[in-house]
Amino acid sequence: MNHAGDDAEKTWCISEVDIFRDLTPAEMDAIAAAAPMKTYSAGELLYSPSQPSEVLFILKRGRIRIFRVSADGRALTCAIISPGTIFGEMVLLGQRMYDNFAEALDDVTVCVMSRTDVHRFLLSDARISARITEILGRRLTDLEQRLSDSVFKSVPQRIATTLLTLAAETRPRVLGARSPQIALTHQQIAALAGTSRETTTKVLRDFAGQNLIRLARGRITVLAPDRLADHTG
Fold first, then answer.
1. Percent of the chain as helix, strand, coil, to the nearest 5
2. Lowest-pLDDT choice from 39-48, 169-178, 192-201
3. 117 vs 5, residue with greater confidence
4. Which of 6, 106, 180, 203 could form a disulfide with 167 if both were Cys (CB 3.0 to 4.6 A apart)?
5. pLDDT over 50 (residue 174)
6. 114, 102 in Cβ contact below 8 A?
């Protein structure tokens, strides 16, 4: 029997997650047992105000968009959650979803942890609780920047900013590697930038005409990030 393989499968969801760095194998096993894996398809909601639940999501694969909807139906993106971090409604951690939605931008894999297990495994460990506080602080700063952008930046500036933010998350680590590619549709980019799909398509085509980006179906390649930065305001 391949016990090593079984153990690796159990801890796969929390391995390489930043808040769990430097834990022992036994500590990893205990957390993995308390946080079963779930998968969601692109476009699915993991959390909505109409079906609230106090759970902590540990994101292993894919990206999550946290957004809220105004009374007139406009959506404001509050955060883009990348693999290796956490989100969800967890009053114990000072983390609230309020009226926010959580949507899978890609096919995603998460581990789900209950309030009881968060208290037992995360808050009781000073290392982990300090890292969670740091993550939530960075997320608040990011939200403040997005709110500022939505008020003071033009639509092309918001789209350029969104592209550069996403490109930075996918930038190749190897010198001389290909340009960063963003695997999102025009509709998804529009939602992130807080504008319409039609306007987004027009702006993207303008950027492509200036050789700042290259457009393909469901994918955008950032060719000139330095020049694109000139359009962020």
1. 45, 25, 30
2. 169-178
3. 117
4. 180
5. no
6. no
Instruction: Write down the pLDDT at residue 9.
Output: 58
For residues 126 and 19, give the distance between their C-alpha atoms in angstroms, rounded to a whole number: 11
CB 119 within 8 A of CB 56: no
Q: What are phi and psi of 223, to 5 degrees?
A: -90, -35
The separation between the first and the last C-alpha atoms of the chain, rounded to the nearest angstrom, is: 59
Residue at token pair 């996918």: 170
Q: What is the DSSP letter of 179?
A: P
pTM of the model: 0.67
User: Which is nearest to 69 in space by CA: 216, 194, 215, 187?
Assistant: 194
Residue 158 to residue 232: CA distance in whole angstroms: 7
- Check if the beta carbon of residue 118 is closer than 8 Å to that of residue 112: no
Read off the pLDDT of residues 15-72 as tens digits, 9 standing for 90 and up.
Answer: 667 777 778 888 888 888 888 889 999 999 998 888 877 788 889 889 999 888 877 7
Using CB atoms within 10 Å of the CB of residue 114, give its burial: 0 to 12 exposed, 13 to 18 middle, 19+ buried.
Answer: middle
Q: pLDDT value at position 143? A: 67
